[in-house]
Amino acid sequence: MVRRREARRASFTQLCTALLWLLTCFNELNAVKIVKLVVPEIIQYGVQDAVILDCEYTYGNNTSGLVVKWFFRNKARPVYQWIVSQKPQDMGILRGRVDLTYRASNDPLKMHRALRIVKPNTDISGDYTCVVSTFMEEDSKTKQMVVFVPETNFRLIQNKTDDDTVNVICAADGAFPAPNLTLATPERRLDGVFHDVKLLNGRYSAMASVTLLDADLPSPAEFICTLRIPLANYAVRKEAIYYPGPISTTPEMPTAADMQLAAAVGSKGANRCTAIALVLLPALAQSLL
């Protein structure tokens, strides 16, 4: 009796395993699956006329209702949709910016799966999600793309307010995404640095400034300003040599705007807002030209 029960259990287990295997095979035959999502991580603004985001997928025997959708930043509304046998559509922030004639494949069930975005700008930086679905199945994948812009004006200024102190000011305009500025010497990163970042017409202006005592500095002293855009894996730096005493030096001839900025930061009791406004003036003037 015991042997019969064990045999029945073994037969039942084998039957379940066989049914599960058949069900898995059936699903694979009808499944749609994204095998590769091609989204450039970083592109530089103005370097290329267009960028291609591709969504490579496989499909099974049942392709009824096959639809490819692309979403930007969230899945609330698609920015691109292609229903097989119909013309692709661009929507939202990508309306009028996608080459709808572009074909990623000669396969009629894959030809309009990709996005060819013309003249990519910084406003299309973010997460892109491709969703491929049929009436039976759906698959999705997400990747981030950053359109970055290097700084247009990067300067390191020294300004003495009296014989005992110096103001070190680093400023940059026209970058995207938001840059980080750090002030340092070859030995250490400087403490007590004031930072400010402003967004103007889709580009960032940033400033870092610190006031130092001559008595705390070697002669000569070296200052280093580093600008980093972490999302773009981008970094540049400027260096300046300073000699403590009644006369200061700067590595480059300052502009009138630089002198105004230095005076605003260096004057005793100066309003930080005044300094910030002067940082933004070059970027504002450039945008109006």
UniProtKB/TrEMBL annotation:
Coiled coil (UniProt feature): none
Signal peptide feature range: 1-31
Protein name as it appears in the record: Ig-like domain-containing protein
Entry keyword annotation includes Signal: yes
The species this protein was found in: Iphiclides podalirius (scarce swallowtail)
Keywords, alphabetical: Signal
